[in-house]
Amino acid sequence: MGVEPGWFEEGALVSVLTTQPLDRPLDYRAPEGGCREGAFVEVPLGPRRVLGVVWGPGAGGYDIAKVRPVNAVLDVAPMRAELRAFLSRAAEYTLTPLSAMLRLATRAPGLGAAQTMRKVYARGIGDPSRMTDARARVLDILDEEEGRVFTLKELADLAGVGTGVVKGLVEQGAIDERESPRDLPFPRLDPDLPGMELTPEQAVAAETLRAGVESGRYATTMLRGVTGSGKTEVYLEAVAACLSVGRQALVLLPEIALTAEFLTRVEARFGAKPAEWHSGVTQTERRRVWRMVGEGGAELVVGARSALFLPYRDLGLVVVDEEHDTSYKQEDGVLYSARDMAVLRAAIGGAQVVLASATPSLETWANVDAGKYGALTLTSRFGPAVMPQMRAIDLRGEDLPSGRWISPTLKTAVEARIERGEQSLLFLNRRGYAPVTICRACGHQIGCDHCDARMVEHRFLKRLVCHQCGETKPVPEACPSCGVEGKLAAVGPGVERMGEEAAALFPDAKVEVLSSDMYGSARALKERIVAIAEGDADIVIGTQLVAKGHNFPNLTLVGVIDADLGLQGSDLRAAERTFQLMRQVAGRAGRAERAGEALLQTFQPEHPVIRAILAGDEDRFWAAEAAERRAAGVPPYGRMAGIVLSAPDMQAIFDLGGEMARRDGPLRQIGAQVFGPAPAPIARIRGRHRVRLLVKADKAAPLQAALSEWLRQFRWKGDIRLSVDIDPQSFY
Ligand code: ADP
Ligand code: ZN
Predict the structure, then answer these.
(1) Hey, which of 202, 204, 233 would you mutate to test ligand 1's pocket, going by the most ligand atoms within 8 Å of its Cβ?
(2) Which of these ranges, 5-19, 559-573, 598-612, has the smallest mean pLDDT?
(3) For residues 67 and 512, what is the distance between their CA atoms, to the nearest angstrom?
(4) Are 661 and 732 in contact (CB under 8 A)?
(5) pLDDT in tens, 552-604
(6) Cβ 514 vs Cβ 543: under 8 Å
């Protein structure tokens, strides 16, 4: 028994949650010196030692003599009660084992390892006996960033010199070399530096957010405004307020929007760069961020969705920028929506949430309507920029030869831009050269061997690629079905093919295709985007990548090659996605002083979604979309869960699915209905067949509890996997 709450004396029984896939915490004895609730520990599990967290008092009720002691208490800040509660609630909400949640919260290498030292370099008092250009560059950097220390490589790289130059300066006393702990706190941010002078509308929004942060209580606010209206400027004021009250802030961005541009902006506002957390961060830096967040040595984290699971000491604000972005929904492993989890975490910890978007999700609108979220709107773009003129190009009236996708009307508009030295964007949300490769002799279409999907030709990679599983193969000479040579033809457009067409139509223009798979690394891609924004292309051809977060000041025309593309899916969010994407893409035009124009090529200009986009009538679109979903009883007006069963053997999953549908007692008790089993829209991925059941319930029904009870009834053998997706965002 503990002498103080949450403290366990040596030998006391404690329950430890590990990161291993077990269904519950295990009991251990507190080690010599005792341990605290929340402590990170290493415990024996069979022959191994594994990471765990002291979750509470032991359960007991078995042969106590056999309980093994905790090996060691790790030298990191214990997990706070708030984070433990968050992980538990998130596990319940997503029907995920708690151990998987703990894995999300401990994604940093060597968490428990003792703090190691490394050599760092700073300006010394001496001057070199002889000054060279290289030496001067090194010393300039040290003088520019006074007080900062560098590693040898950082300093040499920044100065563009070899490490020998730095070493030489150390010998002369011009540079100090010293040992320093590896995990250093991040530089302090100064919330009192002046921000920009806000417009009256921005000032009102900023003041509201500021007051929310200062209240120290939970609330969620939607911050809506067209691209360029100053949402970032406004939420940085909320960050400033949060730093001023001594709490930590988190800004979540879709991965692709995590640019140097954004970090520079934070630095300009607060005098130093924030901590970063995303897939591009090195392992050692991850460890530093994880530890410093827990110790309070990082005040602001800018990151991708998993940054929500860091062990903040006192999180006071979470901003979810581009909150409608589909990348916030994790579609692998633990299926969670970062937007919903941000709200949950904030509610537990008394923090504020800001959901910023030019095109908020219908979920967020519904919560605003229901009075659960506050709403702030910025109506105008900052400065002279205005929303672009939007027009449809009715493809039924255009003279377009087959195999061509740029209509004469669009061509004329692009030419006008080239003449004026302005940029055009041709948008097509399809990677690769052509979506279909067909044999002109037998009609066979080349598919993936492992998936129910067609292979997409990527001419740049010189391969066919499956966009489901990533499998690639060379483009064959002969048809794999009939064996006839030289008859395989590319059908339909991808961005690479658009690049060819544009190069042929506009021979004097510089054409650039921007697609994630055409660059070796995310960094290379981002650098290219910056160069293009600075004018290094006349025509940009891009996928939805370009719809996100970057400024192209000289871009005045957006041509949407196929505005109908997103409307064809059976997805319940198809209309919403198309509306958001089109508006965002259109928002790329005319961000600086020049007015922009957006032209949408479509075969159905009278389609309600296309009409709403053209009219720019957001409120009407949302109202219509909400009415349809309400009538159908689907999210956000009803609840849904997708259950996907997969296995190499199709019969096995149909049998199990059928049994699940029949034994639906626990679901029927809450008034929920089960649909299926049916083949999933993609009926095979990576050689596994897929069957789907869909559960629908009323908004207020206790869906998770009923689902757990329902699923507990079933046992299965063999290689069957079951995944549950609460509030599915996409259906595949
Ligand atoms: P959003 O996040 O809504 O796209 P931003 O905050 O990025 O908008 O603002 C768009 C551009 O306008 C940025 O370059 C920003 O610095 C500038 N801007 C916004 N508000 C102001 C202001 N009040 N004063 C000066 N510049 C501003
Ligand atoms: Zn495949």
Answers:
(1) 233
(2) 559-573
(3) 64
(4) no
(5) 788 888 898 988 877 765 566 777 777 777 777 777 776 556 678 889 999 99
(6) yes
Q: What is the pLDDT of residue 107?
A: 86
Map 656-676 to HEC letters. HHHHHHHCCHHHHHCCCEEEE
Measured on CA atoms in the order 425, 427, 432, 438, is the torsion positive or negative?
negative
* Residue 125: exposure state from Cβ atoms within 10 A (0-12, 13-18, ≥19): exposed
- Ligand 1 probe mutation, 234, 382, 386, most atoms within 8 A of CB: 382
Sign (positive or negative) of CA dihedral 362, 367, 368, 369: positive
Phi-psi category of residue 310: left, alpha or beta, with phi > 0 → left and psi -120 to 50 → alpha: beta
Q: What is the pLDDT of residue 382?
A: 63
The shares of helix, strand and coil residues in the chain, as percent rounded to the nearest 5, are 35, 25, 40
380 lines ligand 1 (CB under 6 A): no
User: Mapped to the 3 state alphabet, what secondary structure does 407-443 carry?
Assistant: CHHHHHHHHHHHHHCCEEEEECCCCCCECEEEECCCC
C-alpha separations of 201 from 97, 101, 232, 379, 465 in Å: 45, 41, 14, 8, 48
Q: Which residues pair with 434 in a beta bridge?
A: 457
What domains does the chain contain, in order, with CATH numbers?
7-104 (3.40.1440.60), 117-181 (1.10.10), 200-378 (3.40.50.300), 389-430+493-625 (3.40.50.300), 437-491 (no CATH), 638-726 (3.30.70.600)
Cβ of residue 650 lying under 6 Å from some atom of ligand 1: no
Please list the residues that pair with 430 across neighbouring strands.
none
